[in-house]
Design brief:
Blueprint: H1 6-18, E1 32-33, E2 36-37, H2 51-63, H3 73-86, H4 88-99, H5 109-121, H6 123-140, H7 144-163
Antiparallel strand pairs: 1-2
Length: 169
């Protein structure tokens, strides 16, 4: 049996959260499928987007940008979901704040080292810090009243799934 990569495992959760085709009038992303929006990808045929193509975009534009392969898997999973939902810059800064690294929005060797140190010190606590960063951000958004319940559910589901992979869950 072929081993499933961390990215592929994480992608399964993302696709579960993102679902199929939607075009909600209050969603600033507009037409969206598997979480890939027309606003972010104006040259993509959203209606006919395949899961394979969505996966290629997610790997290149989210997983690789947050350096998912270099992070502890639970942190990579949570940060990947954050990046998909809020953007890679916000996900990167949340990682940096939670780990005490310099907040420049770019995940490099110093951030990765700081994340590993903070994560090793207390895995579940570190994941809780990432969740708090995300929930605090959502609470400030004007669209929280419309989408907040779903965002909170998503954070909680991602946090639960991430903690399943820790040594101290």
């Amino acid at each position: 049996m072929e081993k499933v990569s961390n990215f592929e495992q994480a992608l399964d959760l993302i696709l579960k959260h993102e679902g199929g085709y939607v075009n909600h009038p209050e969603d600033p992303g507009g037409e969206t499928k598997y979480g890939i929006s027309k606003r972010a990808y104006p040259n993509e045929d959203i209606v006919n987007l395949t899961k394979e193509r969505a996966g290629q975009l997610y790997r290149r534009d989210y997983w690789d940008r947050i350096k998912g392969d270099d992070l502890p898997y639970p942190v990579g999973l949570f940060s990947f979901d954050t990046a998909v939902n809020l953007g890679t810059s916000l996900a990167s800064r949340a990682l940096q704040r939670a780990s005490g690294a310099e907040q420049d929005g770019v995940i490099g060797p110093k951030t990765i080292e700081a994340v590993w140190e903070a994560y090793k010190a207390s895995q579940n606590h570190f994941l809780d810090l990432l969740a708090k960063e995300r929930l605090d951000y959502y609470a400030q958004l004007t669209t929280f009243k419309t989408f907040g319940r779903g965002w909170v559910r998503r954070v909680n589901e991602t946090l639960t799934e991430s903690k399943k992979w820790t040594d101290n869950s």
